[in-house]
Write a structure and sequence with these properties.
By secondary structure, the protein is an all-alpha fold. It is 71% helix and 0% strand.
Amino acid sequence: MPIRLGPLELIIVLVIVIIIFGVGRLPEIGGAVGKAIREFRESSAPSEKEASQPSTPSDESTSNT
């Protein structure tokens, strides 16, 4: 069951975050979260590309001498 947040819940969460971290640190926290999401997407993107490409035989499997 997905969690649905309405406008009132989002305002409450934002107020709690402002109380805990303060207004001055919000841009720093937002930047850190954005950087983490970007790195996660970049690290998962190559694995998706590799999965769509056909695999080529490695040198070990072709060299049976």
